[in-house]
Specification:
Layout (H helix, E strand, L loop, with lengths): L2 E4 L8 E7 L7 E11 L5 E10 L34 E7 L9 E9 L2 E2 L1 H9 L10 E2 L2 E3 L3 E4 L4
Parallel strand pairs: 1-10
Antiparallel strand pairs: 2-5, 3-4, 3-6, 6-9, 6-10, 7-8
Length: 155
Amino acid sequence: MAGDLRNAPKGKAPRLMIRALRDPDGADLDRVQIVKGWLDAKGKLHEQIYDVACSDDRAITAKHRCDRPVGNTVDVENATYTNDIGEPLLMAYWQDPDFDPKQRAFYYVRVLEIPTPRWTTYDAAFYGVDLPEGVPATQQERAYTSPIWYTPVKG
């Protein structure tokens, strides 16, 4: 992945085909997101997150987000989880609904796994000690692609 797009054809917006597969030894996937960043006319940076694929037949809302959380199968006491939720494979086709061909932008894909025990939860279970106070017992691992840049050609 990664690349540099220049001077979009008139009336066209960037389109991405996405396929994400879980690690064979890892947790199922929760969702796939596009993170878009852009500079406005004053040079201020903005960012928008679009959920583009949600596991477990969840719908994507008008605000471009999954309609509900994926759930959580973590057994904190034993520091285990199951892949009873999520999906091993998520695919999506996405076209930027807010594309401005005169605006510099970047895009990258972010994939989130279902919740799994945090490393401190594994340690607490292994050593038979209490979890540290104020530390979450679970986490959602993420993977990111390299960015795709869009640079309008001045002319």
